Amino acid sequence: MHIQELALDTRQLAPQKAFYSATLGLPLVEQTADSFTVQAGTTRLRFQETEQDVLYHIAFTIPHKGFHEAKRWVQTRVPLLLKNGEDELFFAGLNARSFYFCDPAGNILEYIVHYGLDQEMEGAAFVLHVSEIGLPVEDVPAFAALLLQQFAIKPYGGTVSEHFAFLGDIFGQLVVVKVGRPWLPTETVPAVIAPVGLTIRGQREQQVQLLPYPYTIWVTQRAV
After folding, report:
1. Residue 194 class from Cβ within 10 Å (0-12 exposed, 13-18 middle, 19+ buried)?
2. Is the pLDDT of residue 145 over 90?
3. Among 11, 20, 90, 224, whose CB has the most other CB atoms within 10 angstroms?
4. Where do the domains of the chain lie?
């Protein structure tokens, strides 16, 4: 699943723009009075200003050969988040390794390497593409079944449980969690519902609003 565009909300437009474009070094490709867009590797990441409180989990895939260099580079700019005193996590079921940090709005960001990902291309500021977006819901199995039926998005690296489902493939994943479940690596930052607009590549063009949630998925046959 290739995430081509990701549209999110923010109450802190100016600090977010400075963080993503200057601190993380992602190219600023578009801006208006109430939004901005950065190029996160092959993914366009857009933030729209809102008056509502929102919080997201976003993961960016980086080249596995550059994991430690990227980690050192990021931690000179922002503190890393810890889990049991460790500042990186290895996921055996995915053959992947991550480190985490926050943006100025408190969103949980993750830089992740997938050791099974071949033919990696270098991206700006280490980033290859956005690979995960969290989608909190009330009924995880029902929502996972809907995604399977509507988009043929299947579980990846594990099974669907009552509280968690990791759906997609090595290129991109939807992290479907029970509302209120803490986001890794924290035990105190609960998953909340917030607007998400997602454009992915697929075989059949469509747009689906995943009611009752403020989640919209566009499927396109062409590269954006």
Report:
1. buried
2. yes
3. 20
4. 3-220
